[in-house]
Amino acid sequence: HKKLSTFPADFLWGSASAAYQVEGAPFEDGKKASVWDNFVRIPGKTFKGTNGDVAVDHYHRYKEDVALMKELGLKSYRFSVAWTRVLPEGRGAVNSAGLKFYENLVDELIENGIEPIITLYHWDLPQSLQDLYGGWESREIIGDFLNYAEILFETFKGKVKYWVSLNEQNVFTNQGWVTATHPPGKKDMKLFYQVNHIANLANATVINKFHELEIPGQIGPSFAYTPQYAKDSDPRNVLAAENAEEMYSHFWMDVYMYGEYPLAALALLREQGLAPVFEAGDAALLKSAQPDFLGINYYQSATNAWNPLDGGVGAASFNTTGKKGTTKESGVPGLHKKIQNPFVERTNWDWEIDPEGLRIALRRITSRYRIPIMITENGLGEYDKLEEGKVHDDYRINYLESHVRAIKEAITDGATVIGYHTWSYTDLLSWLNGYQKRYGFVYVDQDETMEGSLKRIPKDSYYWYQHLIETNAEEI
Ligand code: BG6
């Protein structure tokens, strides 16, 4: 474009976090264990056994954190509620002391002119529900999730206008039941697709309830969207990219938006005996729910090549080493193989840096679904160095600036984008990578000893974002 559109005046320039990654205080004021409180204690699961027992102590320091948000000029703050604070066993009597924390946080945000955005579920399932009926493996979760959501809707209606139902359903189901790197740590493809189906039903049920109760505001899921590219124009490589897009993107977004699984994916799962079991009413329920916006967490794109059915590479691997170039090739024989994209840079965890991919993502979603998009996460996880009381994270500024530019281009192309939330506001616990993989605007003195002073120090990127918000990104 010769000239780019400006961001809307009410654009939500925000930042995000999740309860387990920032709060600490896992057993305070009546809270009980979530599956994450226990999973991190299994030896070898997380980097040097790091956990969120203290995290960055947001539970006790939320006022200081909100004061810094105000100084930054944040328009919105996306955070998640820990289900186990509100309902320590996932169901039963409300724990008002736990709920109070979020009432205080919401009030503090509003008093400081910051729009609160609540994520209902960011992975910290009550352990009691896992023990009782296997959590997401049972349809019983639908009623419990609905009950929990309704408590929050009623408590915060009129105060909280934006709600995220499930955070990255594609990630928590994949990590929980395919790679076994998140709780409950299983490898079972059939169960994975069934769990995912149940999560779809729970998502639809909660969205319908929100609309039925006429809660003023908007609700939608947050999807981790990784746009898939082909290695080149070899038709087999193009098909591999189509396969990946179908199995890893449409497989979720089509259900959210159309209430239907995509056909090629369903055909494949039926052939393999992995298709989810539908009960009477499921299809109608999925069709009936309509999100008001689609939340997108964008970090990177992925590039694909053909992977033969016989002798192709298998099982996904993750780079949790923090060393560039250590990711092994992975894929699904007969479907696709994920390869390195030679045209982009990579982080130390081998995450590909691709701002253009965000424009492509916003364009693809807009042309397939025509729905407003809220970017609920985007950011760079890197080692940061504290030098004489400062963090010069120009690499993060470059990353964010190029992604903001990509959004501006996508808006000019015709996408409706209502907000941008960087991951993350303060440094926090990276689920598997401890405290060394930092994402925040605000450096927190915390590390794998989990005995840091917890002092907050704004990084260079904090001041960069402050200026960007002040000028509504006009200079980009
Ligand atoms: C998203 C999650 O998947 O990515 C966040 O919603 C997470 O909770 C973020 O922290 C970054 O992932 P990681 O593994 O680098 O911490």
From TrEMBL:
GO cellular component: cytosol
SUPFAM superfamilies in the cross-refs: (Trans)glycosidases (SSF51445)
Protein origin, superkingdom: Bacteria
Keyword Hydrolase: yes
Molecular function, one GO term: beta-glucosidase activity
Pfam families linked: Glyco_hydro_1
Record protein name field: Glycoside hydrolase family 1 protein
Source organism of this protein record: Lactococcus taiwanensis
The organism's taxonomic lineage, starting at the top: Bacteria, Bacillati, Bacillota, Bacilli, Lactobacillales
